[in-house]
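Quick one: sequence plus 2-acetamido-2-deoxy-beta-D-glucopyranose SMILES, need structure tokens.
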Amino acid sequence: MSCIKMVSTRELILLCSILSVSSTAKILGVFSFCSRSHFVLGFRLMKELADKGHEVTFINSYPQQVPIKNLKDISVEETIKHASAYMANLTKFGEMDHWGQMEFMLGLGRTYAEVVLKNKNVQNLLNSDERFDLVIMEHLWNEAFVIFAQRFKCPLIYFSPGPTSIFNNHLFSNPSPSSYFPNLLTGYGSRMNFWERLRNTYLDILSEIFVEFKLIPEQNDLLKAAVSDAPDIRTILYNASLMFVMSDISIHDPLPLQPSIKSIGGHHVGPLKPLASNIQQFMDNATEGVIIFSMGSNSASSTFDLEKRKDILKVFSKIKQKVLWKFETDIIEKSSNIMITSWLPQQEVMAHPNTVAFISHGGLLGTIEAVYFGVPILGIPRFWDQHKNIEDAVRRNMAIKLNYHNINEQVFGSALNELLNNPMYRNSAKRQSQIMDDRPVKPLDEAVFWIEYVIRYRGAPHLRPAALDLKWYQKYLMDIVVFCSFIGITCLLFVFLAWKCIYSNRKKIVSFSKKNK
Ligand SMILES: *[C@@H]1O[C@H](CO)[C@@H](O)[C@H](O)[C@H]1NC(C)=O
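Reply:
Sure thing.
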């Protein structure tokens, strides 16, 4: 008995030492984009890695006030100032054409990426003899950041704050035929009619040209400006090990995924904290239900023009539900069923059993949370992927989409009443919520597994798709087409010449025999 105990104890110690050797790594996380919702996505993952005992260095714009064990912040807060000046033009976004929208995004990316790479602490890090086992970077118009992986000679993981798209598929040569893979900028689902496929193809070609001839060269310049002896960006860009995408089958259509792309949508949800007592009380007392109204951190509610805001207030004054409205300043002439708050713990209020609807700009974060908690959405998309996020929820019968410019008392009122009173929306939302939850491994655990996997196999080169090493004409079988065409044409030519030869000989024979008659 004691012998068994001794062996098992020794084995336990051995196991522990193996685990501790293999399971603690030095990880650099680069999530410097100046938007709190993006920060939340990265922070949840970095915090989990730190909790698991990894030593995490975290470049971000929202450093912790209270230090967290194993997590060292490198603050690049100044990105917020620079980018918010840039984001002031956001209201014009809707009027831009697609090329203009991509240029706007690239401009935003350039603005903050430049600031990050020039930051003194970041420069110190780049020039230090620090050692990392892995770099995880948010992939968002900041390809130049791949320099971190090159500098520390370690594997690289991308973290995309959206689903697979024309802007990240190329990184792993993920199959994305325009026939069923909707462009991020269209709002289409994967079932498109002829005209939609035509437009989708056009936008795909346009986007690919943009990525190839504008985005990558420009990011290459950024990279060279930051680190003069850096190699060409492409040698690092296409050498990453893995990519996480914020997607889930409950939100996005089923589309191809290379084994090196992992969907972890919903990883950031929880753990829920207790609500502030005033909000808790307000929600508990709302026996007819609570509507949550938040236009996110980038397109704040104050960008709503005054006339529209008045119309919305009129609608709210006539309903029996209560409204919890995230707004930057208080609104004086509001009905008694409205509570204004400048800060909203979105997941916690969404989880409240009295919550009946979510009025949202359709940011991916909020959309994921609404699906997770099964809350129907009244979407007012303004910018970039927000149209797609809302359209996807509309196709799943759990949302109604409103065009911002058409909003008035009548339009807003009838949409809201439809959402609240037609049980289809609530039932569909509950069903999508169930689908999101129904998976073999929780998304956060899956993310941690794959991160440790990449570290264990030193970049896991066995996951690298062969397609990445093909030339474009090989990938699209152009060489095969040319070869087969050549053979085909040669054969045809041969047949034609042979036929001509035989025919003319026959003619000669015929005419010869005619002459001799
Ligand atoms: C490509 O990645 C592997 C594994 O992560 C690494 O060993 C190699 O040095 C990288 N190559 C380049 C050119 O960065």
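The chain has three domains: 23-267+442-469, 277-437, 471-517. Residues 357 and 420 are 7 Å apart (CA to CA).
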